[in-house]
Structures are given as C-alpha cells and as structure tokens.
Design goal:
Elements lengths: L6 H9 L1 H14 L3 H30 L7 H14 L1 H4 L15 H6 L6 H8 L1
The structure holds zinc ion (ZN).
C-alpha cells in the first residue's frame, strides 16, 4: 500500500551530519561570548539537539524498514517543537531591536541584546 523506499531517509542520514556538526561548532565558538550571549548559546544547543534527534530518527526509519512517508510526521513534530519553543530555540534577529539596522553575524550569533553597536553603546551608558 505505502511505498517503503528509503531514498530520502538515506539522503538525509548522509547529509544531516554537516548541519549537526556546524551547529555544534557554532555552539563551541559561542562559548567565548557566554557573558553577552548565553541565551543564544543555549538556543544553538537546543537546535543541535533537535537536528540530532531528527538525524537519529532517519537512521531508525531505515533500520526498522519504515517508508519515507514517516519523515513527514517527524518533520512536522520538529516544526511544532520549534514553534512551541521559538523564543528559546530561535532568539536570533537579523535587525537591531531599536533602530532596525541590519545586524552583522557577530551580533546575530553572540549578543543576546539584538542591538547594533550604536544602540548597544547608548543602552549601556
Ligand atoms: Zn540599533
């Protein structure tokens, strides 16, 4: 009745390794900025754990011979977790919270305040 192929699950099990490693490398780099970005460090940890869980689930789908259709509820469950805990998992903002100027990668990844350098100086003083 259902197609039991694992092509998508096999592809994901081979390729999700790289985003998982990238998220955990970013998490290690964030360790240097724990004073200013502890919340974002936890967020990359949660994101990495979620990616790791999804990656592990692809191996389980292949191991227990379940079809690629089971990837859909797994993916939807991951999206639901992200939506439910979006403040904890995705605190990253691309624009300054005060002046709406575009933030650099340093402010996006390492500063919980989501402020550009000018607004950060004003708020500190
Ligand atoms: Zn600003």
């Amino acid at each position: 009745m259902f197609d039991q192929s694992h092509e998508i699950a096999r592809f994901l099990s081979r390729t999700l390794y790289y985003p998982v490693v990238a998220v955990f490398v970013i998490n290690l780099v964030q360790r240097r900025h724990m004073r200013t970005g502890l919340r974002k460090r936890y967020a990359t940890l949660y994101l990495g754990a979620l990616l790791l869980a999804f990656w592990g689930a692809t191996f389980l789908l292949i191991r227990f011979d379940l079809g690629d259709l089971f990837l859909i509820p797994l993916f939807l469950a991951c999206v639901a977790v992200v939506l439910l805990f979006r403040d904890a998992i995705l605190p990253y903002r691309l624009r300054c919270a005060v002046c709406r100027r575009r933030l650099g990668p340093r402010e996006i990844l390492f500063y919980d305040s989501n402020l550009c350098a000018g607004c950060f100086r004003e708020n500190v003083n």
